[in-house]
Amino acid sequence: MCDELEREILAMESRLQEVKLTMEVEKGNWERANKLTKHGTHWKRAAQTPHTPASPEPAPAEKPRPSKRSMTALLRRATVEWDTKDVVAWLEQLQFLELARQAEAASISGAQLLGAHLGLSDLHLRQLFRVGLVDASWKAFVREVASLHRRHMEAHPSLPPTLKAVPAAEVSLPQLAPPSRKHKRVKKSQPQITCWTCSKAKRLD
Asked: At residue 173, does pLDDT exceed 50?
């Protein structure tokens, strides 16, 4: 009985000794792994350094947008004094973007715009903007030109007559081909030929 107890005690002491040795080995490994070096802790066991957000890059300075010309200030000026940029700004404000591009390409001024407005006909306006087909947008544009012309006449009554409405003849306009006219053929009636005897008989009757 005593021998068994002694053997068990020896076995337990042996196991404790093994555990102690294992713990010492693990301790040595841990110390080596966490030993500070010039680069910090050992790379295998290095603690993750807190992520510092990179400093935000300065946003590129936005290019200043060209300020649109004030429509109020523009309409206070005489329309005949408008340059091409004024005409383009007015058209863009009214959302006639295609006509605005055409006005810029053709360098249309305010004087040309008023000079091409004939009131009842849009022929010269079509020549000025090189418009072939007429749609609802074009008709709305003609109404806006008429309104602009009327506002110009009312706001600037003291201007000389030559500036109130520039004659269309003074505006350089592209020439359109005149409409072709089909000549109607007139059937010539053939002269009636009667004999001398018949005509004499009619006179005697």
From this structure: no
